[in-house]
Amino acid sequence: MGKINWQMKELPAEKRALMKKMIKEVSEHENSQFDDMEKFMQHGTTTVRKHCINVAHVALFLTTKFGIEVDEEAMIRGCLLHDYFLYDWHDFHIEYLIHGWTHPGLSMRNAIRDFNIGEIEQDVIKHHMFPMTPFLPKTKEGWAIIFADKLCAGGETVGDRVNARREAKKYTGPRALKNVKTTGDTQHSKEEGKNADRIRRHGLGITHIGHGVLRRHRVAV
Ligand SMILES: [Fe+2]
Ligand SMILES: [Fe+2]
After folding, report:
1. Environment class of 69 (CB within 10 Å of its CB; exposed 0-12, middle 13-18, buried 19+)
2. What is the model's pTM?
3. Which residue ranges does the chain devote to CATH 1.10.3210.10?
4. Fold of 13-156
5. CA of 128 to the centre of ligand 1 (A)
6. Which neighbouring-strand residues pair with 192?
7. Residue 55 CA: which ligand is closest?
8. Which ligand is nearest to the CA of 149?
9. Is the peptide bond before 174 cis (omega within 30 degrees of 0)?
10. Ligand 1 centroid, distance to 159 Cα (angstroms)
11. What tens digit of pLDDT does each residue of 166-189 get?
12. How far does the centroid of ligand 1 lie from the alpha carbon of residue 193, in Å?
């Protein structure tokens, strides 16, 4: 274990370059469905693909900052593929009710099928939901993702709420009418007024104009 770098606030340039290289490698790999993960939402308005990149970034940041020696390429590859399932787990489906427990195993099988990954990557993917799945990782890389995944899940969920609140503020108060975007049959000003009222009353419950709602809409199409 190396020294803790207290000064480090962001990934050094060479590690950012490594991240870029690994994303390109995973995305362009023969049989890769990595880019298809962009079609599905993970937390709030963050897609599964973006979430996996966030987790890889944070895992690399943590191990670098705390001077933990890991196989960086294997850890990043594992992180990029840790949620390598291709469905929207928010949809109602009997199997998705236990998604939290089943997706690590499924993602690992998918990653083995498409990428022929090694033991470290498998450990990272299979154990990333600890303690929800009560099996401990065997590698340092496997421990790093446990923290990185939780941090990202929290950040993405809370960040989304903050953005939604900021968005909702645009539609409240004196500037509400100006900012409300109308759709289809709600073109004239009377309807705009109704929209603004509805938004003012419901606060975060912004219906057809909410950022998240729009994103989900786009995914459903
Ligand atoms: Fe996961
Ligand atoms: Fe995750």
Report:
1. exposed
2. 0.76
3. 13-156
4. Hypothetical protein af1432 (1.10.3210)
5. 7
6. none
7. 2
8. 2
9. no
10. 18
11. 776 666 655 555 655 544 444 444
12. 42
